UniProtKB/TrEMBL annotation:
<feature type="binding site">
    <location>
        <position position="218"/>
    </location>
    <ligand>
        <name>FAD</name>
    </ligand>
</feature>
<comment type="pathway">
    <text>Carbohydrate metabolism; tricarboxylic acid cycle; fumarate from succinate (bacterial route): step 1/1.</text>
</comment>
<keyword id="KW-0813">Transport</keyword>
<dbReference type="GO" id="GO:0008177">
    <property type="term" value="F:succinate dehydrogenase (quinone) activity"/>
</dbReference>
<dbReference type="InterPro" id="IPR003953">
    <property type="entry name" value="FAD-dep_OxRdtase_2_FAD-bd"/>
</dbReference>
<protein>
    <recommendedName>
        <fullName>Succinate dehydrogenase flavoprotein subunit</fullName>
        <ecNumber>1.3.5.1</ecNumber>
    </recommendedName>
</protein>
<keyword id="KW-0285">Flavoprotein</keyword>
<dbReference type="InterPro" id="IPR014006">
    <property type="entry name" value="Succ_Dhase_FrdA_Gneg"/>
</dbReference>
<feature type="binding site">
    <location>
        <position position="251"/>
    </location>
    <ligand>
        <name>substrate</name>
    </ligand>
</feature>
<dbReference type="GO" id="GO:0009061">
    <property type="term" value="P:anaerobic respiration"/>
</dbReference>
<feature type="binding site">
    <location>
        <position position="392"/>
    </location>
    <ligand>
        <name>substrate</name>
    </ligand>
</feature>
<dbReference type="InterPro" id="IPR036188">
    <property type="entry name" value="FAD/NAD-bd_sf"/>
</dbReference>
<feature type="binding site">
    <location>
        <begin position="35"/>
        <end position="50"/>
    </location>
    <ligand>
        <name>FAD</name>
    </ligand>
</feature>
<dbReference type="GO" id="GO:0005886">
    <property type="term" value="C:plasma membrane"/>
</dbReference>
<feature type="binding site">
    <location>
        <position position="381"/>
    </location>
    <ligand>
        <name>FAD</name>
    </ligand>
</feature>
<dbReference type="InterPro" id="IPR037099">
    <property type="entry name" value="Fum_R/Succ_DH_flav-like_C_sf"/>
</dbReference>
<keyword id="KW-0472">Membrane</keyword>
């Protein structure tokens, strides 16, 4: 089955819906969105804390301070042109969402409410500032609902429950995608002038993660399989506070409201690690501090592998009114009442700083020299602009979605207005059909679920919060062995409609690709920076490693990774910030 649209968006989370909305608002542009899920079930809905924007509704604030915090939080690997555009544009974007009808929480004077969040400061690091604009602890959910309604109004066409299998790219030009319709088992070819990737991250490569089951790095993997680069995959953020054992997120807003992290003796241990902003230090720092407390025997629980989040000193009405979802999560999943009891937490794999490399307008890059894949764009967690550098600042993910999703949508629409439809290759769905047939008709006896579990366990252990060369070298061999076993995976379920066994087998292939590129990138970066913390190279090394990793699949020798590098942009339009030591 064939379809044709001027602009095609893959993914219906915040970035995809923002991109599709702005493309749909452009003149004479037909727009469609393909999604694995129904749009309002996209993972953006799990984002709780807020959107950081220097509105200054509670205390004085300026975009320059937000830009500085973003760059410092990214441990100076952030491209400063992207940070400056972001810090300015996110202010307008928040007001725009408000005008679309997003029900932000309010101050007594009627303005959008703002609260403190980790790493956000005033006067370039002097003290914490109220910058996070929020809708209680359901901010991402509200963004999804608002943008979906606006897309319906704008006439966007939706193809829900479609699994994308391939990008149609020839001679550095993207011509469309091939996707599997889950409800029928049919293969569809989508012909487009411009394609925007907004398919999210790959947290399911780890054992404990806040990510939904659907976040398996699909489009990153497909891009990588084309011999195109993935940028900065070694940087993966672990959120400090996931529900113990489950990984379900407890928003940083809980600490923004005054929550305190305590070890087994009740000590507020963050005072030792970040004396100035304590529990509101950047996420990489808090996650490492928690793991050190656990490793040194100060954890809690039967296995001494968790830490406690203390909200009991806060007024009950604050907990119930400003943090209703996490309060419900704790009561439902742990049987713990945060009003009266401490909540056991562990760091959880949360967010990919790296992804498909792009320009500030979302144009996908084919190489470290700036060559572009014409007609292909990316935004959100699947992309690397690079706003987040080595460690994303809390609240900047939702800001990223609305700022760079909008820019990608506008750029793609502008391109589509001038471009003609490129001629599709003969049998554009041949690769995808072959992929499906191999899994359906294979005679192998290896089990996809077992391979996935081994991958997640070993990635958590060897490429997690703390890393070293020996463990990562071992992980490279483990991934190669799992890839060899994956070739023997077959699907027992013969059904065409909603074949979840088939989908999970496909997703495993994507995860193995991501693990391959990620582990090689991490092993080769011989320093500690942001979320990449090496026990054998403990210092940040700006002389040798102030640069972005570009990981390519070795097309001549599958299983190997070619690593190249490109410089960090160290100056915005008006400001630049020189790398400084990490002191909080």
């Amino acid at each position: 089955m064939h379809h044709r649209y001027d602009v095609l968006v893959v993914g219906a989370g915040g970035a995809g819906l923002m991109a599709s909305l702005y493309a749909a608002k452009s003149k004479n542009v037909s727009v469609a969105v393909i999604s694995k899920l129904y749009p309002t079930r996209s993972h953006t809905g799990a984002a709780q804390g807020g959107v950081g924007a220097a509105l200054g509704n509670v205390n004085e604030d300026h975009w320059e301070w937000h830009m500085f915090d973003t760059i410092k939080g990214g441990d100076y690997l952030t491209d400063q042109d992207a940070a400056e555009i972001f810090a300015k544009d996110v202010i307008e974007a928040v007001y725009e969402l408000e005008h679309m009808g997003l029900p932000f929480s309010r101050l007594d004077n009627g303005k959008i409410a703002q609260r403190k969040f980790g790493g956000h400061t005033r006067e370039y690091g002097k003290s914490a500032v109220e910058r996070a604009c929020y809708a209680v602890d359901r901010t991402g959910h509200m963004i999804l609902q608002t943008l979906y309604q606006q897309n319906v109004k704008a006439g966007t066409t939706f193809y829900n429950e479609f699994q994308v299998l391939d990008l149609i790219i020839e001679d550095n030009v993207c011509k469309g995608v091939v996707a599997l319709e889950l409800s029928s088992g049919e293969i569809h070819t989508f012909h487009a002038k411009a394609v925007i990737l907004a398919s999210g991250g790959y947290g399911r490569v780890f054992k404990i993660t806040s990510n939904a089951l659907s976040l398996t790095g699909d489009l990153m993997s497909i891009y990588y399989r084309k011999g195109l680069p993935l940028e900065d995959l070694e940087f993966y953020q672990f959120h400090p506070t996931g529900i113990a054992k489950l990984g379900i997120l407890i928003t940083e807003g809980a600490r923004g409201e005054g929550g305190i992290l305590r070890n087994d003796s009740g000590e507020r241990f963050m005072e030792r690690y970040a004396p100035t902003i304590k529990d509101l230090a950047p996420r990489d720092m808090v996650s490492r501090a928690i793991y050190r407390e656990i490793r040194e025997g100060r954890g809690v629980g039967k296995e001494k592998d968790a830490i406690m989040l203390d909200l009991t000193h806060l007024p009950k009405d604050i907990i119930e009114s400003r943090l209703p979802d996490i309060t419900d999560f704790a009561r439902t999943y742990l049987g713990v009442d945060p009003v009266k009891e401490l909540v056991p937490i562990q760091p959880t794999a949360h967010y990919a700083m790296g992804g498909v490399p792009t320009t500030i307008d979302g144009e996908a890059l084919a190489s470290e020299d700036g060559t572009q894949v014409r007609g292909l764009y990316a935004a959100g967690e699947v992309a690397c602009v690079s706003l987040h550098g080595a460690n994303r600042l809390g609240t900047n993910s939702l800001g990223d979605l609305i700022v760079f999703g909008r820019r990608a949508g506008l750029a793609a629409a502008k391109y589509a207005q001038k471009a003609e439809f490129e001629t599709l290759p003969n049998n554009p769905d041949a690769f995808s059909k072959g992929l499906i047939e191999r899994l359906r008709n294979g005679s192998g006896s290896d089990n996809a679920a077992k391979i996935r579990k081994e991958l997640q366990d070993t990635m958590m252990m060897n490429v997690g919060i703390f890393r070293n060369g020996k463990d990562m070298e071992a992980q490279i061999q483990i991934v190669k062995e799992l890839q060899a076993r994956y070739k023997n995976v077959s699907v027992a379920d013969p059904s065409a409609r909603y074949n979840t066994e088939l989908v999970e087998a496909l997703e495993l292939g994507f995860l193995l690709d991501i693990a391959e590129a990620m582990t090689a990138s991490a092993l080769n970066r011989k320093e500690s920076r942001g979320a990449h913390d090496r026990e054998d190279f403990t210092e940040r090394n700006d002389n040798d490693w102030l640069k972005h990793t570009m990981a390519y699949r070795d097309m001549q020798n599958p299983g190997n990774v070619i690593l190249k590098y490109k410089p960090v942009v160290l100056k915005g339009e008006t400001l630049n910030f020189v790398p400084k030591p990490r002191v909080y």
